[in-house]
Design brief:
Elements: E1 10-14, H1 18-37, E2 42-44, E3 52-56, E4 68-73, E5 79-84, H2 90-108, H3 112-127, E6 135-139, E7 142-148, E8 153-156, H4 165-175, E9 177-181, E10 193-194, H5 196-206, H6 213-216, H7 236-244, H8 251-256, H9 262-274, H10 282-285, H11 302-315
Parallel strand pairs: 1-2, 1-3
Antiparallel strand pairs: 3-4, 4-5, 6-7, 6-9, 7-8, 8-10
Helix pairs in contact: 1-2, 2-3, 3-4, 3-5, 5-9
Length: about 325
């Protein structure tokens, strides 16, 4: 059963092959001691009852240093997955556990950025469903709003709920919240209001906790047009928009340009993603993640395509008589 107390210890299990399990558990023992000093208390448990379970990413059979993922059990019974980048470095494992601890705390009430990031994770999971369902947002046990992932609208149900976004997010972090399938009929709800302005703000706040998982696996990001919610925002938004209009960048390459602090870039990408400002190209979405600034040939400029083709011809001696 998942721990729901903010400062209570959380349990973690290592579900790995024997030859890796003892290695990871020894690494975790040192990391968990450091986490305890920073206010996060963990203990090892079995996979059936743990709040967090560390597993191999894929089958790991051919990898010399296989990647790991952590399955984080939510209060509603669902599972969030956190990819551990560079798991064989103690610092990377510590960073992953800090992120996971923030996710677990967010359900019991904690930092606003944690709540925003986790809220969007739940929202994206539901939207990705083949048949997205109406959701209810609860704060402190009260149903305060119904959210429609098809029409991108929401219906306020609780007159005592904060009307301003910052106050709403603060209440979520302070009182605890949940986002689950709605039990209230939509027909009995008040008039709908646009949801995307609120999602945009959630995205910007969530940038402090990083980019949403789908953004990490998209090799190219291209805006459909000009994201109008960015008007009046940070000055760096204009530079980010200019880069994203060409489709020649992904999240990694955009960060490397250092146009803005990392949290601002991730927040802007989160906001554009949840508000559907990016082109949805299934061929790109399901391709293996690309690193650095590499861009598929299909989205490269025409001049670059010609130079690549010429280089191939020269290497194959096609140009010779």
């Amino acid at each position: 059963m998942m721990n729901t107390q903010e400062f209570a210890p959380y349990s973690i299990a290592v579900a790995l092959p024997t030859y890796l399990k003892s290695l990871v558990e020894r690494m975790l023992q040192g990391v968990l001691r450091d986490q305890h000093e920073h206010g996060l208390r963990w203990y090892l448990n079995d996979a059936a009852n743990a709040d967090v379970t560390v597993r191999l990413m894929g089958d790991g059979s051919q990898a010399i240093s296989p990647n790991l993922l952590a399955e984080v059990r939510r209060r509603d019974g669902g599972i969030d997955v956190v990819h551990i980048e560079g798991p064989w470095r103690t610092g990377a494992m510590a960073l992953a556990l800090t992120r996971i601890g923030q996710m677990l705390r967010a359900e019991a009430g904690s930092d606003a950025a944690d709540a925003a990031w986790l809220f969007l994770r739940r929202w994206c999971d539901n939207v990705a469903d083949a048949q997205p369902r109406m959701l209810e947002l609860r704060i402190g046990g009260r149903v305060v709003a119904l959210l429609d992932p098809i029409r991108y609208t929401w219906h306020a149900l609780d007159r005592q709920a904060p009307a301003e976004f910052d106050a709403l997010l603060d209440a979520m972090a302070r009182e605890g919240w949940s986002l689950n399938t709605a039990q209230v009929a939509v027909l009995s709800a008040p008039a709908a209001a646009p949801l995307k302005p609120m999602l945009w703000k959630f995205g910007l706040h969530a940038g402090r906790q990083g980019a949403l998982p789908p953004l990490l696996h998209m090799p190219a990001l291209k805006l459909k047009g000009w994201p109008y919610f960015a008007a009046g925002g940070a000055r760096s938004f204009a530079d980010l928009i200019a880069q994203l209009r060409s489709g020649a960048n992904n999240r990694s390459s955009l960060q490397s340009l250092a146009l803005a602090p990392r949290a601002v870039v991730d927040g802007f990408l989160n906001a554009c993603y949840v508000c559907e400002f990016f082109h949805d190209n299934p061929a790109l979405l399901h391709s293996p993640p690309q690193s650095g600034s590499a861009v598929p040939l299909s989205v490269a400029p025409a001049s670059q395509q010609r130079s690549v083709i010429s280089a191939i011809r020269r290497s194959l001696q096609v140009d010779r008589p």
